[in-house]
Structures are given as structure tokens and as C-alpha cells.
């Protein structure tokens, strides 16, 4: 695979749009950077389109909630694109409390020849105007502008962890630790609460919502995952408040693996529908699981991401790494899944061949256009030359956010403040 | 209307860590006489795991806006650890009156663990008050720690004990100074009437006299009952909910 890289602040979310032409990143500083793929040139057939910066804008600013004496972090938690319906691009970006709809559009012409203004924009004295002319559009340097079109605020008491655009393209949901709200894109001053797991008595709180997503085709169906490792599928047609799930996915605990940290490592950090809509994938601390929507009692596939950490859970608890939230993604055909790990490693699992590979996103080990070399972690005994031992892993280098192009083998991997884009090599 | 001064939210430290973070092999439970490979983590946690968990909970509670998921996972893990330490809960007799000052240190720890549930419960109750109210109680900061037992647990451990002044689980003078800069005026409000909690440290039983960090049996029983719900917490009704 070829390697390209770009710098950014600590990246907190990565997302391709529906065609893969655009790639958006959000960072801790509230900025959104959008990359656009170059059109492939006929002269350089072997040079696949590169991603270059297309637009950068400040999506969220730090806020201070004076009522509660709390700072609201500007970090972008999630970005989700809307399908393109005209020349402009639309995306949702959210921090802990507020979702915003941004319009990103190009301007490559500007009107010239106003009657009431001169070329510098100053107003002309009407008495000096003796003729009328029609302003004409003249080409200008391409300018990409991002404008906030909607701000959806004041609907979340707790921290927003997910947003998901509905397949009806008219509504979307936002989920925080205890509630999920449904919004209409046109209406910002109200939202419908569709899930509420807050107990009447907060002392009874034992579980929070960790992720939520709409079904890719059925606009009435969505799933949400919990900190106890369960997934609930809900049907909005059943009732206005979807507190009662239609399906409940949970795998029984393996008694041989039980420990004090069982619940923490079972907490689901990400849930994603397959493109087909037939499966869901969940990520917990040590594994990725694929579930068939028709089978609730256990996943159909389980992939070990870094099982060598199982004996280190106490140390990972001590340094808080055990609470890290990794995301997971499907490729376009749902045949391969990918997720991140530590030491800037990320893992891919081929569901058909059952083969897996560990790769590393780092500048030290890769040069641009170099082929990525598979990595291996040595768990004990004699370490081979290219292997890295578990105790040498760098736990400050974690890959939490990755994205896969919707139809091609192009992936984006966020390693702290670096963005890596890998493509299949063309022979 | 009381608002505590705004606390700047602490950045997650593990993300800011500039130098490489290597992972220590879990060895705290290893017996050096036995080969490491043959040993498995014990079913019963060491006190250091309990201490660590309480310390983490304390740290989490000190954030101006705690991460709810982190908090809930910590609390559930703590419950699991505590349940392991005392797996059989028996119904306690009526909780005894508060301890007099100068009681053995382990009872202070025991009461801090009993208070842990109350503290956590209080915090979660706090979070429910966040909604739409002008008065938002801050997460529990240190009311003041009880005296630490000679077992050497970190001073922050006992800081969750809300019951200090009201019930005689007292503040160690030297530790009190650590928390002087924290504005605890809001805890003087009636929202927090800890004396009405009914959670009082239990009597001195035989096991309670042991040195170190052994939990008092009666207090654990009481704690477990609180958790299980057979004992209702007496709380003043909070506004809003």
C-alpha cells in the first residue's frame, strides 16, 4: 500500500463522504479540515488521485456555560456527511453539546459591473450614474466557503457521543450518555427524544449509551450500544419513545475470562451497520464482533484485536488505557473490517479468508509511496527480528479513528495529530 | 443560589502524555517465590486494587464535568471488587451511633467505603440536578478526608467521606490543610444534609480491629444492603426530579 500523510492537530474524527471524493477530519481544537481527491489525470494513469486540503474552518469554539460553571469542550466528536443533492456539500459536526450543519460550497465566479457600487465596493453617488448596465459573472480564483446553516443546541444534558443521518435524509439523531434525540434538519428549536435510559433515581445508574446509528436503508430502525456490552435495536414505528427495544444483542460472559475488569472491557465503544444493513459490527476493548441482525444471543464472528493485552488489564486500568474508545469500520463490500490499536498499529480482518494483518502508521517506518510491511507483536518467548514485544508497545500512540473509502481500497488512519491515507498499489 | 467557582476541566492526561507510555507487566499480585507463568490473578483483589479504584473515582469526581461512562464503569468495577472482598452479605442490625473521635483507623476506612456508595449516589443524583436548574451542584470534591489508617493508603482515598463533621468520622488535621483552597461552601446547603443519610459507620466488630485496610464486616453488610436496595437511603428530596 502506498503512504501519504498530512499534519493536523489531534484528530478526533475522520469520515469519507458518500462518494469518497471528500474526506473530513475534526480535531480537538474544534477545526474541520476537508480533503478532496484530485481528479485522476490521463497523463499519469498510475498515479491515483491524491487527497489535498479543500477547506478548513472552525466548526466549534470553546464555550463557557455560565449557568453551570462548566467549560464546554470544542473538540469535534463526530462528523457525518449528508448525501450530495446539489453542487454544495453538507456535513454535520458535533462537540459534546451542539450539533451544527455546515454547507461547503465553491465559488469560482463573481459578479462585476454593479450600478450602485464601484469596483472596490464603495457606494456611488446616484447623481453620477447616467447609464445602466447589467452585472456579469466573471471567473475568479476558486474559493471554498463553509457556512453554518443550522445550529442544533440545548438538547443534550450529557455528552454527545454519536450522530447519524437517517436514510430519509430529512432527519438525523444525536445520542448522549443517557438520551437519544431525533432532529429534523429544518428545525433547530426542537427535537424529539426517542430513547431515555436515565433512571428516576440517579443512584441506580449502572449503564450508559456509548454509540448509536441508523440503519442504512430502513429509516425507522436504529441501534444503540451500551457500556455493558449490549446492543439494542429499536423500531420507531413501535412507539414514540423507543425505551423498549425490538431486539437485544448480548453475548453471555465467558466464565473462564471473568475478571474485575470484565465489564469495562465489554463496554462497546463503537457500533456500525454493514453497508448491506444485514450485520452490525461492535468494538469493545479487546475484540471486534460481527452480529447478524437475526441472531441476538451471540455474534457470528469475533476477531481478537490485541488479545495479548488480556494479561495486562490491571496495568491498563491503572493508566486508564482500558477506557480508550476505539472505532471500527467496514470496507465498501463488507468483506473486510478495520480497527485501531496501540503503538500506532491498526488491524484488518478479512471476513472471507479469515486472514488478518497488523499495520503501522508511522513516519519512522514508512516513506511516502512505500509499501506497508505487516507487523507482529511477540507475546512471549523468543522475539524474532522484526517483532515487537508487548512490553515495548507505546500506549500513548493509539489509533482510535479510521475511515474506509465507500467503494475503493483507500483508508484514512488518524494517529494522534497525523493523518495517514493509504491506497492499494496499482500494478 | 450557590455556584461553586468554575473549575477548569482537566484534560485527559493520557492523551497529553508526551513521552512514551510503556506498560508494566501486572506483577502486583505475584508471589516472587513462584514462577510468574504459573500464577493467575487472584479471585480476591488486593487492597491496592481497591485503593486504586477509589482513587480513580475520586479523581473522576473532581472533574468539573465528569465523564459519565468513565464514572459508571468505575463504580460498577468498585462494586464488583467490594462484593468480592465480602461475598456473603448478612443483614446487619440497626446501625450503631456514630463513632467517637479517635477510633481505630480501619473503621474510618470502612466508613469511607460505606460513604463511597453514598458519595457516588450523591454524585449521580447531582448529575440529575444539572438539567435545567440554575443551581448545579458541583461534583464531589474533597469534603475533607478522614484520618488515614497506618496501612499507608493515599490520603485522597478517604476524601470521599461526606460524613466527616456530622457523624464523627473525623478529619485528620494534617490532611485537612490539603484541601483548604477548595470552596466547599455549597456543601453547607441543605441539599447535602449528611446527618440525615442514616449512613453511619458501624460498630467495632472483631474483624474491624484488624490492622491495615480490612473492611469492617458490619459496614460491608450495610453497604451491600444499600446497594441491593433493602436499605433505603434517607435523602432530602432534591429539586427538579
TrEMBL record, chain A:
Q: Which domain of life is it from?
A: Eukaryota
KW Chloroplast (keyword) present: no
Keyword Repeat applies: yes
Q: Which GO terms describe its cellular component?
A: protein phosphatase type 2A complex
SMART domains (UniProt xref): WD40 (SM00320)
Gene Ontology MF: a single term: protein phosphatase regulator activity
Keywords for the protein's UniProt record, in alphabetical order:
Repeat, WD repeat
Q: Family, per the entry?
A: Belongs to the phosphatase 2A regulatory subunit B family.
What is the name of the protein in this document?
A: Serine/threonine-protein phosphatase 2A 55 kDa regulatory subunit B
- Gene (name only): PPP2R2B
From TrEMBL, chain B:
Q: Where is this region: Disordered?
A: 1-22, 136-159, 194-213
> Residue ranges of the SERTA domain?
42-89
Q: Give the source's domain of life in one word.
A: Eukaryota
Renumbered to this chain, the signal peptide range is none
Entry's InterPro entries?
A: E2F-SERTA_domain_protein, SERTA_dom
Q: Where along the chain is composition biased (Basic and acidic residues)?
A: 202-212
Output this protein's name: SERTA domain-containing protein 1
Q: What gene name is given for the protein in this entry?
A: SERTAD1
Amino acid at each position: 500500500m502506498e503512504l501519504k500523510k498530512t499534519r493536523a492537530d489531534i484528530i478526533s474524527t475522520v469520515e469519507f463522504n458518500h462518494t469518497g471524493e471528500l474526506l473530513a477530519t475534526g480535531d480537538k481544537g474544534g477545526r474541520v479540515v476537508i480533503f478532496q481527491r484530485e481528479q485522476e489525470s490521463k497523463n499519469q494513469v498510475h498515479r491515483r488521485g491524491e487527497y489535498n486540503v479543500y477547506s478548513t474552518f472552525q466548526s466549534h469554539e470553546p464555550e463557557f456555560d455560565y449557568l453551570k460553571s462548566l467549560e464546554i469542550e470544542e473538540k469535534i466528536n463526530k462528523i457525518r456527511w449528508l448525501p450530495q443533492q446539489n453542487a454544495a456539500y453538507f456535513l454535520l459536526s458535533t462537540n459534546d453539546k451542539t450539533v451544527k450543519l455546515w454547507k461547503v460550497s465553491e465559488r469560482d465566479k463573481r459578479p462585476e459591473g454593479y450600478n450602485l457600487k464601484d469596483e472596490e465596493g464603495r457606494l456611488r453617488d446616484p447623481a453620477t450614474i447616467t447609464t445602466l448596465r447589467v452585472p456579469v459573472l466573471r471567473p475568479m480564483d476558486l474559493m471554498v466557503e463553509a457556512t453554518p446553516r443550522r445550529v442544533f443546541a440545548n438538547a443534550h444534558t450529557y455528552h454527545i457521543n454519536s450522530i447519524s443521518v437517517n436514510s430519509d435524509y430529512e432527519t438525523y439523531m444525536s445520542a448522549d450518555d443517557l438520551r437519544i434525540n431525533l432532529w429534523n434538519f429544518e428545525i433547530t428549536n426542537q427535537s424529539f427524544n426517542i430513547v431515555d435510559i436515565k433512571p428516576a433515581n440517579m443512584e441506580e445508574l449502572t449503564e450508559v449509551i456509548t454509540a448509536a446509528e441508523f440503519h442504512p436503508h430502513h429509516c425507522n430502525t436504529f441501534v444503540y450500544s451500551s457500556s455493558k456490552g449490549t446492543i439494542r435495536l429499536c423500531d420507531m414505528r413501535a412507539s414514540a419513545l423507543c425505551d423498549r427495544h425490538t431486539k437485544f444483542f448480548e453475548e453471555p460472559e465467558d466464565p473462564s475470562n471473568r475478571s474485575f475488569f470484565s465489564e469495562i472491557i465489554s463496554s462497546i465503544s463503537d457500533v456500525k451497520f454493514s453497508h448491506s444493513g444485514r450485520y452490525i459490527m461492535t468494538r469493545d476493548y479487546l475484540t471486534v464482533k460481527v452480529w447478524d441482525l437475526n441472531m441476538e444471543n451471540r455474534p457470528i464472528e469475533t476477531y481478537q484485536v490485541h488479545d495479548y493485552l488480556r494479561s495486562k488489564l490491571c496495568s491498563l486500568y491503572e493508566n486508564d488505557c482500558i477506557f480508550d474508545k476505539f472505532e471500527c469500520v467496514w470496507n465498501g463490500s463488507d468483506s473486510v473490517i478495520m480497527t485501531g490499536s496501540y503503538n500506532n498499529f491498526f488491524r484488518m480482518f478479512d471476513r472471507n479468508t479469515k486472514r488478518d494483518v497488523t499495520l503501522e502508521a508511522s513516519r519512522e517506518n514508512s516513506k511516502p509511496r512505500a509499501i506497508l510491511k505487516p507487523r507482529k507483536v511477540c507475546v512471549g518467548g523468543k522475539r524474532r527480528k522484526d517483532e515487537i514485544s508487548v512490553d515495548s508497545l507505546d500506549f500513548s500512540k493509539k489509533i482510535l479513528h479510521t475511515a474506509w473509502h465507500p467503494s475503493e481500497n483507500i483508508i484514512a488512519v488518524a494517529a494522534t495529530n497525523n493523518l495517514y491515507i493509504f491506497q492499494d498499489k496499482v500494478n | 443560589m450557590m455556584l461553586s467557582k468554575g473549575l477548569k476541566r482537566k484534560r485527559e492526561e493520557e492523551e497529553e502524555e508526551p513521552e512514551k507510555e510503556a506498560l508494566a507487566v501486572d506483577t502486583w499480585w505475584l508471589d516472587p517465590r513462584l514462577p510468574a507463568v504459573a500464577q493467575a490473578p487472584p479471585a480476591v483483589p488486593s487492597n491496592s486494587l481497591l485503593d486504586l479504584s477509589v482513587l480513580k473515582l475520586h479523581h473522576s469526581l473532581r472533574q468539573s464535568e465528569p465523564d459519565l461512562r468513565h464514572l459508571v464503569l468505575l463504580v460498577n468495577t468498585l462494586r464488583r471488587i467490594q462484593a468480592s472482598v465480602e461475598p456473603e452479605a448478612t443483614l446487619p442490625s440497626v446501625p450503631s451511633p456514630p463513632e467517637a473521635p479517635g477510633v481505630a483507623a480501619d473503621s474510618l476506612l470502612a466508613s469511607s467505603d460505606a460513604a463511597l456508595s453514598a458519595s457516588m449516589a450523591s454524585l449521580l443524583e447531582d448529575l440529575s440536578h444539572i438539567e435545567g436548574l440554575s443551581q448545579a451542584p458541583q461534583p464531589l470534591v474533597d469534603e475533607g478526608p478522614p484520618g488515614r489508617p497506618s496501612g499507608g493508603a493515599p490520603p485522597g482515598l478517604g476524601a470521599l467521606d461526606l460524613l466527616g463533621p456530622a457523624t464523627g468520622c473525623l478529619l485528620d488535621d494534617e490532611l485537612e490543610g490539603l484541601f483548604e483552597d477548595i470552596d466547599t461552601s455549597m456543601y453547607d446547603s441543605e441539599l447535602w444534609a449528611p446527618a440525615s443519610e442514616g449512613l453511619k459507620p458501624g460498630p467495632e466488630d472483631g474483624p474491624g480491629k484488624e490492622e491495615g485496610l480490612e473492611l469492617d464486616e458490619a459496614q460491608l453488610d450495610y453497604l451491600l444492603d444499600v446497594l441491593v436496595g433493602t436499605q433505603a437511603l434517607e435523602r432530602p428530596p432534591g429539586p427538579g426530579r
